[in-house]
Amino acid sequence: MTDGRGVDSECVETTDVVIVGSGVAGCVAAIGLAQRGASVVLLTKDRLEDSNTRWAQGGVAAVLGGSEDSVAAHLEDTLAAGGGHSDPAATELLVREAAAAVEGLLALGAVLDRTEDGSLARSREGGHRFARVLHAGGAATGAELSRVLVAALGPAGVDCREQAAARELVIEAGRCRGVVADIGGRSTRFEARAVVLATGGAGQLFAVTTNPTGATGDGIAMALRAGVPVADLEFVQFHPTALAAGPPGAPRLLLSEALRGEGALLLGPEGNRFVDELAPRDVVSRAVEAEMRAARSPHVFLDARPVDAFAERFPALCAALAAFDLDPARDLLPVAPAAHFLSGGILTDLDGASALPGLWAVGEVACSGAQGANRLASNSLLEGLVFASRAAQAISGGRVGPRADGALAPLLEERSAGALPVRLLPLDEVTGTDVVRAGPDDVSAARFRLQRAASAGAGVVREPVGLAKAGAEMAIAGAVADAARVGHGEVPRAVAELGDLALVGRALVAAALARQESRGGHFRADHPAASEAFRLRFAFGSPLSEAAAIAAKTDAARTYAARNGAAQ
Q: What is the β-pairing status of strands 175-183 and 265-267?
C-alpha cells in the first residue's frame, strides 16, 4: 500500500470507480461509467468548472463530411505535427472516432457555432490543411464543453466532490485499489476497483503559462511515486500567441489559433512578418522566440485587424481583451509563447489502461501516443473525448489490466507494429533530494524560483547548462517541500503542489537532457536536428510494474513475465 500515512486516522469510502479531475476527460469518463451502472465518485481539487478544459479556446478537430476533407487527411496532418513520434494506431483511432465524439457532445446539448444555412461552422488552424475545427462562441469552445459536461454529471448519478485533492494511489496485492484524498483538511481513502486519473498537465511548472494555477502535475507525480511508467515529459507545447500582459503567476490569456486561421498576422516589433502563421505550433513558437531575442523585446505583435467582424465572431475573446484596454479592431496585440500542453504523461494502451492493473489515465495526463512530440491544434479536447469514452467502455466491460497496444505496447510485447521503443531512465536520480531547511515563506518562494528556472532553462529553446540549472532548482524545491511536510498531519495544498511540480519537473529535465536532438516541442540549441537514434520514448518507472506481471490478463503480459521473470 502506498498511501504513506496512518490508515487508522482516515475516513474510508467505497465505490466502483474513482475519477480524479473534472475536465473534459474526467467528465466524459464519469458520465459514461455512471450511465452503464457503475457507482462513480469524481474528485476535483477546486470547483468542477476549474480545469484546463474551460480555458480551451480553439475547438474540436473532426471530419464530418460535406467537404474535400477526409479522415485520412486529418490523420496525415496529425502525424506530421507529431514529428515522427506518434503512435500510428492511437493517432488513427483519435481521428477516426472524432465524428462520433462530436455527435455525443451534440446529444448532450452542446451548442456549437453554425453557419447561416444551419451547418456546423468550421475553422482552419495551424497545421491543418482544411477547415475542420468545430467551435463554440468563436473562441469559447472549452467553456461550452465544460458547461455541458458538468451539467450532465448530476443527472447521470455521479457523486462529485469539490475541494478534494488526490494525494496518493492505494496499491495492494499488485493492483491499484483506490486513492487517498485531502478533503477539507481530512484524509479520505476511496477504495474502488478502478481509478481513472484525468488530472491534466503541468503548465504551472513554468513562469508563463496558459494553464490555471491548479495545473501542477498531480496525477503524473502520483504515478511516478508509484513506479507506474510515465513517458515523453520533455515534449511541452508552447502556444505562440499568449497575451503578454497580466499579473505574475496568473494564466495568460490565449489568443486562439483560430484568429490566424481567419487572417491575423504575426509581426515583429518593427512591423515585419517573420513566419508562416499557420505552421505547426512548435515552429511558430520558436520563430516568435527568435524574433523576440533578435529584437530584444519581451513580445511580438498579433495583428488581428484583418479578421472580419472580430467582435461578432469572437465575443468572449473581445471582452477579455477589453479588460486589458485592448481593441483588436484597432490595436496590435502583444503576444509571447506560453507553456500550454504536455504531450507526455502516464503510458497507456488504446483504452487508457496503464501498466498498473486498476489504474487508468485519460486526457492530458496520459501518454496514449496520439499526440506525438507536438500536438496538432484542437486535438486536445478531442483526445479527452475519445479516450475517456473508450476507458469507460473498457472498465464497464470488466477489464483490469492493459492490452498490448498503444504507447504502452513496447513494455508489454517486443513486436508491436509501429510502436516506438521505450528506454527507461533511472527514477531514483529524479526522486532523490538533499536536505534543505525550509522556513514558513519558503514554499511560495521555491515555487516562484522553480517556475523561473523552468522557463529559462527548459522553455522553448533548451541547452545543457540551462537544463542543469533548472534541474538543480527543482531539486531544491523538492527538498523544501519535503522539509515543509514535517510536523503536518495533513500536508497543506501549497506544499503538496510544490512537491508534485518539483518531481515532474526533475523528470522533464532528465528526459530533456537525455534527448540529444530536436523534435516537436523539444528543441535543443546544441542538437538542432532530429536524429533517428532518438526515435524512442524516454520513460520512468518499472519495465512492467509488479502489479501488471501478477495480475494482467493479456497473453502479452504473460509472455513478458515468462521471458523476464518477476518484474523489477
A: unpaired
- According to the per-residue pLDDT averaged within each range, which of 2-11, 35-44, 307-316, 556-565 is highest? 35-44
CA distance 374 to 85: 9
Greater model confidence, 432 or 153: 153
C-alpha to C-alpha distance for 226 and 298, rounded to whole angstroms: 40
DSSP string, 291-351: HHHHHT-S-EEEE-TTSTTHHHHSHHHHHHHHTTT--TTTSPEEEEEEEEEE--EEE--TT
7-235+341-416: CATH topology is FAD/NAD(P)-binding domain (3.50.50)
d(CA 469, CA 416): 38
Apex 227 CA angle, 221 and 229, nearest 5: 85
CA angle 366, 370, 374 (to 5 degrees): 90
Return the closest-CA partner of residue 383 out of 204, 198, 109, 183: 198
pLDDT, one tens digit per residue, over 104-142 is: 999 999 999 999 999 999 999 888 999 999 999 888 899
For the chain, the domains span 7-235+341-416, 242-336, 428-537
Q: For residues 124 and 433, which has the higher predicted lDDT (pLDDT)?
A: 124
393: number of Cβ within 10 Å: 16
476, containing H or E segment: helix 464-485
pLDDT tens for each residue of 412-427: 865 456 789 999 998 7
**Which helix (H) or strand (E) is 366 found in, with range?**
strand 366-367
Per the structure block, which three cell numbers stand in for 404? 498490448
Q: Where do we find the cell 515543509? A: 484
DSSP readout, 25-80? HHHHHHHHHHHTT--EEEE-SS-TT-SHHHH--S-EE---SSSS--HHHHHHHHHH
Nearest to 31 by CA among 198, 279, 276, 209: 198
Q: List, in order, residues 6 or more apart from 293 with CB less than 8 Å away.
A: none
For the chain, the straight-line distance linking the first and the last C-alpha, in angstroms and rounded, comes to 17
Classify 242-336 by CATH class. alpha beta
Burial (CB count within 10 angstroms: exposed 0-12, middle 13-18, buried 19+), residue 290: middle
- Annotated catalytic residues are 281
Residue 568: count other Cβ atoms within 10 Å of its Cβ.
10
- C-alpha cell recorded at residue 228: 507506474
Highest CATH level, class, for 428-537: mainly alpha
